[in-house]
Amino acid sequence: MKTRILVAVAGVVVLIAAAAVYVGMAAARNRDVAATGTVSLAPGPRLLVRSTADASRGHVVTVSSTDPGGPRAVSPVTCARVYAAAGTGLCLRQDGDLTTYQLAVLDSGLTSKREIPLVGLPNRARVSPSGNLVAWTVFVTGDSYNGGVFSTRAGILDTRTGELAPSLEDFAVTLDGKPYQAVDLNFWGVTFTRDDHTFYATMSTAGHRYLVRGDFRAHTIGSIRENVECPSLSPDSTRIAFKSAIDDDPAKGWRLSVLDLASGRVTPLAESRSVDDQAAWLDEHSVAYAIPRGTQHSDVWTVPADGSGVPRVLVPDAESPAALG
Amino acid sequence: MYLSTIGRSEHKVSRGKIAANVLALGTVSLVTDISSEMVTAVLPIYLVLSLHLSPAIYGLVDGLYTGATALLRLVGGYLADRVSRRKTIAGIGYAISALAKLGLVAAGASAGAIGAVITADRTGKGLRTAPRDALITLSAPQDMLGRAFGVHRAMDSAGAFAGPLVALGVLALVGASSTDAFDAVFVTSFCIAAIGVLLLILFVRDHRTPRPATGTVSPRAAAALLKSAPVRRLLIAACVLGTATIGDGFVYLLLQRREDIGTGWFPLLAVGTNLAYLVLAAPLGALADRFGRLPVVLCGYGALVVVYLLLAGPVSGWPLVVVSLALYGAFYAATDGVLMALAGPVLPEALRTTGISLIQTGQAVAYFVSSALFGLAWQVWGIGPSMAVAAGAAVLAIVVTFGLLRKVR
């Protein structure tokens, strides 16, 4: 018994020491970085991204539109997801401990104007073209007791009036024109038109995923077509870039395509890899999206929006792209 | 010969020693649960924020998570009886789960590899549960089985309680939620799980009987278990009881909707239940030994009926939440371990692990089916009528269980 206790104590000490050393080394690798340069969200020929570079991981940075791989301005602000338009920024970030998150509405100087606690893991962030409305999506876990099943929750905030729709599930939903109610409704990936009340998003229910159009003023949502996820409206509001599950099966990955709203025609883009991101329009002709590289990094790629050309890296070591200019 | 008379007097072990083995198993469970709940707590954050997996992929991974264990339990149980090495099979299960934590680091961002690692982790859990419970039944005298399971379950949930806190501590030490921080959580989780395996090897005693005669443990003998009326009754009762349970997720969701609890508090609902479970498991186990296991199990389901009625009833406010969660925890404390204590003596020692895994699998499958049915009922009938049906089903389960198990001691 004595030997066994000695062996046990020795084993426990060794294992705990091993864990402590690993944690210590990880902590040493993870020192935070200082800001370099001034980041502004004011409209201009710049791209806003979240850095995934080792030296500035998580920080909001801007690069020049003409030289996106060139020098970056690194801000002290860190976000899990970021987006900006017309001088308004939306940053989804950790709030204190690791289980709670918040959204922060940023002005053009990255000062936080409003913070709202978020429940769930930040997933998508969007700002309307006017900068007046912001939308977000979080993943909400169930309870750990049960293994936890995921659902998503999407909300919209009017930054002028302060009007808040914490969950689109509270809106009046129609599916194929008929009023629809279900407990398994999930929404994600909001994108805004220029009128500051119409939006598009993804709705899932009963195993199907739909493109929906909603009205933030009327609190209504109606389905348009199936298997369209994470819509992103073009600057001229005529097309929607989206991802769709290959063969309608998310396990096979996602294909990036563009839907012409007037004709309903779908154009697959030249990107053949699986893209699991809400694309961002750089201008009327091209979209940008993140492709993860290993577990630590991600690059922002771009591809023409008309199905031509080839994808190319736009900003290395970055994600969450938004064109400011 | 009645099965309940088998295996009753073969092992006269003194009380002190018995307690030691149950405590050793409880400690192993406690340490292992710290390790596994650390990972459970951060896995969604890791998959989504760090690896950018979408909910659909997460759903697939999660499906593997829950689906992989049920049948493996049967295989593990049978295997443990067959080679008459319950500790070894349980140990292999614990070791597989421990290695899976390192597998998470190695899997990187590959969804396929992560799915495989999580399946391995659940395989480990499937393998170890029945041999562990069989060891508990073999390590305590029959009149103390309720207490033994109560103590074990209390230690188990204490670990589940501490796990997320340890994970948060590691994340806080390492800093930002980079992949590095999550790797540190997984490595720490591995080290803790390895401590569990070490403690199992050093301090848990196997309960090895002389190698059973050929034919004692065979698929045929396992099938013959079902011919024994007490075993069949227990299995049916376990399935009936499983069917009466609608799923934790629904209970918490209903509470949250009823009370409009901020979703930030949502995880705390499970914590509340766990706390009641932790506090009540040992005393209710002792109560079961004193006043009979069946009454305690039935009272547990009575508590469940009250929870369902509360959720559908007119009372509201914070008292409703507190009372519901306390009763829900009491339901688990009165049924989870006590049912195993009820099952232990009925099963012949040579096939005890097989029998326990059979009962656990039956209950788990019934629970899975009833959760799916309740989800459907909720959608078709709405909350009120569905809850009424659920409460009615639970009452019916109490009556049926009483009828079935009246004679099982």
Automatic annotation (TrEMBL), chain A:
Which Gene3D superfamilies is this protein grouped with? TolB, C-terminal domain
Task: Name the domain of life this protein comes from.
Answer: Bacteria
This chain's protein is named WD40 repeat protein
What species is given as this protein's source?
Answer: Amycolatopsis carbonis
Automatic annotation (TrEMBL), chain B:
Q: Any idea what this protein is called?
A: MFS transporter
Q: Where in the cell is it found?
A: Cell membrane
Please list the GO terms describing molecular function. transmembrane transporter activity
What are the Major facilitator superfamily (MFS) profile domain coordinates in residue numbering? 21-409
| Top-rank taxon, per record | Bacteria
Transmembrane portions of the chain: 21-49, 55-80, 157-178, 184-204, 234-253, 265-287, 294-312, 318-343, 364-381, 387-405
* Cellular compartments per GO CC: plasma membrane
Asked if Membrane is a keyword of the record, the answer is yes
> How does the record say this protein sits in the membrane?
Multi-pass membrane protein
Q: Which Pfam families match?
A: MFS_1
Q: Which UniProt keywords apply?
A: Membrane, Transmembrane, Transmembrane helix
State the PROSITE patterns in the record.
MFS (PS50850)
